Structures are given as C-alpha cells and as structure tokens.
C-alpha cells in the first residue's frame, strides 16, 4: 500500500491518519464540529496532506450513515451528524483537493480491515459506539446491498414496539446496544471512569454491562444463523472494556450457541480497535484506485 489518507468520521470524533502497509504513520484525532462537520473534515485533511507532502495517492473516507460508495454520496446520515445527508462528498473533496477520494460506510470499512488482518473471507463486525453499526464481509467482498443498506444492523428491530429510535421506528437494536445506552444503564457519564470501574469489578457497572450484553447476544445469535460468518467481531468504544467483557459476551452466548453449530469463541474483540475505520477507509480507497 502506498501512502493513503484514511479518515473515520464518527458521531462525536473525527480521526484521520496516513496509512502505509496497513500501519498508521501519522495520526490526528479531534472533536467533530456538529454544526459544521465539513469544517472538521477539511481541517483534518489539510493537516494530513501537509504531513504527507506530495506522496499521498488517494483519500478514503469512512463515515456513519448510508453511503453510495460507487458515487461517493452520503445518502442518509443519522441525526448524530447533522447536515450530512444527501452529500456528494467524493465530488466535493476531489474538486477541493484535486486528489482521488472514495467514501464508504464506517462499519463496512472497519469490517474490511478486520477481515484482511485476520485473513478470513466471511465476517460480521458490530461497531458499538455512539450508535450501533454493522459491516458484513461475504466471500471476501463487502456486502453493500441493493440500496446500500446492507449492514444497517443497528436499525433492525430487536424489541417490537420498544424504545423510540431517531430513525422513526421503535425497538431498534441501537436503542439497546450502544455506549450511550451503557452510560445510561451505568449512571456514569465519564467514559474513562466507567471503564476503570468496570475493571475494578464495580457491581453497578458490571450489572449495566451484563444488561446490555443480554441484548447483544440475541442480536449476535441472529447474525450467526443468518450470515454464518467465521467471526462476529465487536468494535467501537465498547472494545475498551477489554477481555473481561469478551468473557461476559461468550458466557451469555453459550446457551444460544449450544443449540447451533457456531461457537462462542467465534465472537472476538476488534484486533484493530478504534483504528479499524481509518485503516479500512485507506484499504478501500487503495482498492478502488487500483481497480479492485
């Protein structure tokens, strides 16, 4: 891989890096200006272009929402990123920076990176962060779908007539499985404090995690029986809870797995952590410019 800029736009942060041979050489992380997300994106791109001088081959953007990757258009962005829907992002950035630019959904980018790193052809990645995203790799290819909606796992119904979702439906998985939900269950606003208390086996935090995991394993079981992947990988901020949370997930998944052919050991935490979106975006851009 030549030098490629990879950028991951989430609900609260924008992360970028210069990626070379699947390794992030230069890294920038800053808050996403919600009222002016394009200003945040421009700021990160300019800093990375300066750092990479004239050696940057292309730019890959991973962003939350439904993305037409062929044309580089953000068809629909969740309310987590206002003023981001119906945006011809690739066209705007190509014109502005005179460099090839490709756009992909953030969870799909992360799934691509995880599958490549693990050298597997069938994988589902769940990004548990501000919301709940999904990326599906089947036979080595990103599953995009007819309307670019494949992998919108967070908006599948988990509990009919359940909690109201920003998308307009009730009972979406995202309303039960996200870091936002975990903070609410735990009654702890600070991310670092929540993680610290979990590692200290604070009963209030552990109980909150188990409550969320009970819904997570229902969703995970559906994914194994629908997609039959080699791995279901958990990514996003939830990974920061570490190996202890993986043990909890596998424990709660065992009763479901025992009635099927998959194993709880096929659930794993992301090996790339919060870098998966950046690396996946760069990989996707590299594959597009190479004609893959």
Structure notes:
Strands 3-2-1-4-7 form a five-stranded mixed sheet, sandwiched between helices. It contains eight helices and twelve strands. Helix content is 37%, strand content 22%. The protein has helices at residues 37-52, 89-97, 106-118, 179-186, 191-199, 203-227, 243-257, 276-289, and strands at 4-9, 13-20, 23-31, 58-63, 66-68, 73-76, 101-105, 123-128, 132-138, 141-142, 231-235, 267-269. With 292 residues, the protein is an alpha/beta fold. The model has no long low-confidence stretch (mean pLDDT 94). The chain has two domains: 3-108 and 274-291, ATPase, nucleotide binding domain (Nucleotidyltransferase, domain 5); 119-270, Nucleotidyltransferase, domain 5. α3 crosses α8 (276-289), α4 packs antiparallel against α6 and α6 (203-227) packs across α7. This is ROK family protein.
CATH class of the largest domain: Alpha Beta
Mean pLDDT: 94
Specify the CATH architecture of the largest domain: 2-Layer Sandwich
CATH homology group of the largest domain: ATPase, nucleotide binding domain
Q: What's the number of extended β-strand segments?
A: 12
Tell me the count of domains.
Answer: 2
Strand-and-helix sequence, N→C? Answer: EEEHEEEHEHEEEHHHEHEH
CATH topology of the largest domain, anyone? Nucleotidyltransferase, domain 5
Give the N-terminus to C-terminus distance in angstroms: 13 Å
Major β-sheet annotation = 5 strands, mixed
Largest beta sheet: strand ordering = 3-2-1-4-7
Q: Which residues sit in consecutive blocks of at least 5 with pLDDT less than 50? A: none
Helix content: 25-40%
The coarse overall form would be globular
Kindly estimate the percentage of residues that lie in beta strands according to DSSP: 15-25%
What's the helix count? 8
Radius of gyration: 18 Å
